[in-house]
Amino acid sequence: MQSLREQDELIPRPRGNLPKVCALGLTAVALGIAGALSPKRLCGWVAMAILILTLGPLLHGVCLLAEEMLFHANTRYRGRRLLSHMLPACGFGGKPLLAAGLAGLLLYLVGHSLPNQEQCWKLLVLTSVLYTLFRTIGILGPSEVEVSDICEGRRMNVAHGLAWSFYLGYLRLVLPYLESSIETFCATHRSTQLFGGRGSRKLLILMPLNAKISHKLEEEDDRIRFYDNLPNNEIDRAGVRGRVYKHSVYRVMDEHKKVHECVVEYATPLLTLYNMSHERTAGFGDPERRQQVLLFFRTLQDILEHSLECRNRYKLILLNDEHEDDPHFLSKTILKHLDQQQKEEFCLTPPPHQESKRPFVSPPPSAPPMNGGWTHVEPMSREPTLMFSNDQPQPLKEPVENTESYH
C-alpha cells in the first residue's frame, strides 16, 4: 500500500538556486586563477568576455526584431509601441543593454592593457556572429530543464491551466456547500451512523499518476460500492440557469467487512491529459503526461491551501500506478487516508483530571486545627473561571495615622 511519505516523495518540488550558486563559484575560481596569472590584464579580459557574451544575444535580438516588425506588428502586438513591447520581447531589455554598455566602457578605459587589440576585436565580431547563427538554428537553444523551469516559473504549463480551471470552475463553487449537503443527505436517509468520522465529510479527490480514470469506482475495486448521490447544487453559471453539480457517496469495505461511507471522485481534468497523450497533434507522450499530472497535483494543492472557501473540505490522494497488481489497492488507499484524518482529531481543551483519592496536605505549623483535627483539601470540581462583581466601585480609604503602640 502506498504510504503518505511515498506520496510526498513523488511530488516534484520547485527548482532552487543551486545552478546560480555553482555558476558564482566557478566564476570566482576562474577570476582568481586569471588574476594570479596576469593581474594587470584581468579587467581587460573580463570586459572583453562580457562584451562578447552580451553582443551575441543583442545581434540575435536584431534578427528576431526584423521578423516581428515585418510580419507580426499588427497581429501579435496590435499596434502597441515599439519601445515598450516589441523591443523587450526580442531581448532588448534593460539588463542586457546595461551590461553591454558597462563592458564597453570598461574595455575603453583599460583596453590598452590587452595584447593584440586587432585580433581581440576580430574575435569579438566573429564570436557574436557565430553565436547568433547557432542560436537561430537551435544549437545553442535552451535545454529541456531551462524550458521546464521557465514554464513552471511563469505558470505556463498545461497542468497550471487545468488546475486553476478545476478550482475556479468547480471546487470553489461546490466545496462551500459540501457540509450542508452531507447533513441533508443524513437527514433524508434517517441514519446517524453515516459519515461518522471527520475525514469522511471531506471530498476525496483521486489523482492516478497514469491519468487512467474509470467512470465507475466499483470497476476498479469490488470492495467499493455506489450508495447514493448527495443533493444537487444548482448554480447559475455562464448563461446556464440552474446548472447542476453533484457528488456521489460510496461505501468502502475494509478487511473486517466494516463499511465506511465517503464522498469520493476522480479529478476530471486528468481525462484531458490522458486524451492529449493519445493525440498526435498534441505532441504529448507518456513521460510528459506523468510530469504534468505531478505538476497538476502540486499546483492544485498550493491553490487550495490558500483558499478560505475550500479549507478543511477536501483531501487530495495521489495514486501510484506501480500497485496495479493489488485488486484492492484503491479501497486500501481510501481507508488509509480516512483513518489518518480520523487520528488527526484531538481535543484542544481536555477535561480537568480528577484525583481518585483526596490528597492529604499538611497545614502550616501556625494554623489551628479545625473541629479538633486536620482536614483534607478538596480537589477542584471544575475548571477555574473568572468572576465579576456587579457592585459599583467604591473610593479608596484615606490613610489614618495611628501612633498608639500595641502591647
UniProtKB/TrEMBL annotation:
**Bilayer-spanning residue ranges:** 21-39, 45-66, 87-109
One GO cellular component term = perinuclear region of cytoplasm
Cite the InterPro entries for this sequence.
STING, STING_C_chordates, STING_C_sf, STING_LBD, STING_TM
Q: List, for all copies, the residue spans of the domain called STING transmembrane.
A: 43-154
As for subcellular location, the record says: Cytoplasm, Perinuclear region; Cytoplasmic vesicle, Autophagosome membrane; Endoplasmic reticulum membrane; Endoplasmic reticulum-Golgi intermediate compartment membrane
- List GO molecular-function terms, semicolon-separated: 2',3'-cyclic GMP-AMP binding; cyclic-di-GMP binding
From the Swiss-Prot or TrEMBL record, give the protein name: Stimulator of interferon genes protein
Question: What species does this protein belong to?
Answer: Sphaeramia orbicularis (orbiculate cardinalfish)
